[in-house]
């Protein structure tokens, strides 16, 4: 990973007023981290009671499950609105909550992909909403089992930063379990690079991450796509703190048994986030007169699948 500067969160005895919008697996995990703050939620199910299985060890019998509650947000003053929905739902959520945002100091987008940040920034400006826009990236793991139980799959790190740097951001108290990154766009680019390789390929082959490295056909496509993404990043002058192909191999091996979010979406015939991963890359490639044929082919193939659902 990159050696960008990361600062620990400031300590404070005052409880923050935090709203979590979107209570999928990651949203539930973020809400759990924030459960000792003045926590509110916004979710379509109107859910106010939540649980998280916090023990990953099979020796824990029964598994440790934390339960917590949070009222629905009715527009109370908020220090943070944390949006954990799919990228494509960002403007829909902000529009739904538009009347509440005048009482909101900061909006933080914690999602896969890129492009929605620019869309949200433009939307806030157009609607004359003064809340600061922040973005975050997380290596924390959580998944929702078939039973509906959310499990904490692996501890990681969540870093956040101001989307448009201006003024003093050092005075902002971050939500729990988050650290401040001064080069957040580079962090997002680094995650985008890995997602642009693993996500479309696992969806195309309908395989777990590690399987991309275990057969000659998959490995050949993995190497070719890694090379294409690395070349494109270099041409666009998007910096990463690692060799893209080596890091993609490392991530695929370390998460060998995981199903990427895009693979899961395809399995369940849900709209994928590839427009904000592959689509974002292709948009910037076209704007700069560049080609990315493998990315284009995978993106079009999976988009055709989605259109048939």
Task: Describe the sheet with the most strands.
Answer: 8 strands, mixed
From the helix content, strand content and strand pairing, which structural class follows? alpha/beta
What's the architecture of the largest domain, going by CATH? 3-Layer(aba) Sandwich
What share of the residues does DSSP label as strand, in percent?
Answer: 15-25%
- Number of domain modules: 2
Write out the CATH superfamily name of the largest domain. Answer: NAD(P)-binding Rossmann-like Domain
Main CATH class of the largest domain: Alpha Beta
Task: Kindly identify the CATH topology of the largest domain.
Answer: Rossmann fold
How many H/I helices? 9
How far do the termini sit from each other?
A: 38 Å
- Helix proportion of residues, in percent? 25-40%
Report the strand count: 12
Question: Runs with pLDDT <50, length 5+?
Answer: 2-10
Strand order of the largest sheet: 1-12-11-8-7-6-2-3
Mean pLDDT: 92
Shape: globular
Rounded Rg = 19 Å
Provide the fold topology:
Blueprint lengths: L5 E2 L9 E5 L3 H9 L4 E5 L6 E5 L11 E5 L8 E6 L6 H7 L7 E7 L5 H11 L5 E7 L2 E4 L5 E5 L3 E5 L15 E4 L2 H22 L10 H21 L7 H11 L6 H7 L10 H10 L5 H15 L2
Parallel strand pairs: 2-3, 2-6, 4-10, 6-7, 7-8, 11-12
Antiparallel strand pairs: 1-12, 4-5, 8-11, 9-10
Helix pairs in contact: 4-5, 4-6, 4-7, 4-9
